[in-house]
C-alpha cells in the first residue's frame, strides 16, 4: 500500500493491445501496482468446464456476470488497503469508469485513464489473431470476439472519452499507440478534448505493407487450425489479394506476315 494511491483505468477496443499500457504504468509506479483484469476471472467460474461444453465459443457472455462481480469485489478490497491499481476496461460505456473513479476518489485515490489509440483494422485483426492463437493452445477455452462487439467500442469510445474528460474525474487522460508512444495527455493540453486525436487514429488508413505481415501470420494460424471455411478466413484472403500488385499484362507480339 502507498500513502497517496493512484488508480489507472484502461480503455481501448478489443484487440487494441491494452496490455502494452501496463509497461508505461509500471514505469510510472516503479512496478508498485496491482493489475485487475476482468478476463482472467472468466476461467475461474466454478462451472467453467460445464459451461464450455454447453456454449462452446459463446461461453464468454455466460461467465461475464461472474467475472464482473469478482472484479468489483477485488477492486473494493484492494482499494480499502490503498494499493496502486490498474483496472482493465474497454470504454464501451461511461457508467463503469465514472462509478469506479467516484468510488476510488472517496477513498483518497487519484484517478487516471490511459487509452489505446489504434486503427480499427489493426485491432480487428488483433481479435482474430488472439482467437486463433488461443484455439491452437486449447480449442475449448479459446474466446472469440464478435466483430460487432469490437465495432461498438470503436463507435462509442471517442464520444465516451470526451464525456469522461468533461467530468474532471481524471487528473490525466492519455492516449497511447501500440509502440508505447504517448499521442495525447489532458494534463498537457487540458483545453483540447481527446476525441479528435482518438477518432483520427481509429480511422487512420493503414498501408498494405503495415498489415501484410499480420495477415500472413493469421492465415498461417487459420490453416493450422483448419479454419479455412470460416468467413474470417475468406475475408483475410480477399484482403491479401487486394494488396497484391496487379500482374502486368504481357504485350502480344504482332504476327509478321508469312510467319
The Rg value, from CA coordinates, equals: 22 Å
Order of helices and strands: EHEHHHEHEHHEEHHH
Find the CATH superfamily of the domain at 6-123 and 146-205: P-loop containing nucleotide triphosphate hydrolases
Helix tally? 10
Largest sheet: 6 strands, mixed
Rough outline = globular
The strands making up the biggest β-sheet line up spatially as 2-3-1-4-5-6
Provide a descriptive summary of the structure in words.
- This protein is of the alpha/beta class and 259 residues long.
- The chain has a domain at 6-123 and 146-205: Rossmann fold, CATH 3.40.50.300.
- 51% of the residues lie in helices and 11% in strands.
- It has ten helices and six strands; from the N terminus they run βαβαααβαβααββααα.
- A six-stranded mixed β-sheet has the order 2-3-1-4-5-6, sandwiched between helices.
- A hairpin with a 5-residue loop joins strand 5 (172-176) and strand 6 (182-185).
- Helix 7 runs antiparallel to helix 8 (195-202).
- The longest helix has 22 residues, at 59-80.
- The mean pLDDT is 92.
Amino acid at each position: 500500500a502507498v500513502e497517496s494511491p493512484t488508480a489507472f483505468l484502461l480503455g481501448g477496443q478489443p484487440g487494441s493491445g491494452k496490455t502494452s499500457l501496463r509497461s508505461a504504468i509500471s514505469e510510472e509506479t516503479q512496478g508498485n501496482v496491482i493489475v485487475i483484469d476482468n478476463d482472467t476471472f472468466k476461467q475461474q467460474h466454478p462451472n467453467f468446464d460445464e459451461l464450455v461444453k454447453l456454449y462452446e465459443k459463446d461461453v464468454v457472455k455466460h461467465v461475464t456476470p461472474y467475472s464482473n462481480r469478482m472484479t468489483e469485489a477485488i477492486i473494493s478490497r484492494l482499494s480499502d488497503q490503498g494499493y496502486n491499481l490498474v483496472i482493465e476496461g474497454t470504454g464501451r460505456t461511461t457508467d463503469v469508469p465514472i462509478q469506479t473513479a467516484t468510488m476510488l476518489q472517496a477513498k483518497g485515490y487519484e484517478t487516471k485513464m490511459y487509452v489505446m489509440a489504434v486503427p480499427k483494422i489493426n485491432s480487428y485483426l488483433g481479435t482474430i489473431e488472439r482467437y486463433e492463437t488461443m484455439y491452437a493452445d486449447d480449442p475449448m477455452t479459446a474466446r472469440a470476439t464478435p466483430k460487432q462487439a469490437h465495432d461498438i467500442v470503436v463507435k462509442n469510445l471517442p464520444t465516451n472519452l470526451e464525456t469522461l474528460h468533461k467530468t474532471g474525474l481524471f487528473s490525466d487522460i492519455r492516449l497511447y499507440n501500440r509502440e508505447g508512444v504517448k499521442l495525447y495527455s489532458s494534463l498537457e493540453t487540458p483545453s483540447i478534448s481527446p476525441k479528435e486525436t482518438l477518432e483520427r487514429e481509429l480511422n487512420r488508413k493503414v498501408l498494405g505493407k503495415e498489415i501484410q505481415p499480420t495477415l500472413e501470420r493469421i492465415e498461417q494460424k487459420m490453416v493450422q487450425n483448419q479454419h479455412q471455411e470460416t468467413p474470417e478466413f475468406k475475408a483475410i484472403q480477399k484482403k491479401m489479394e487486394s494488396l497484391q500488385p496487379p500482374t502486368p499484362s504481357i504485350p502480344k507480339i504482332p504476327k509478321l506476315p508469312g510467319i
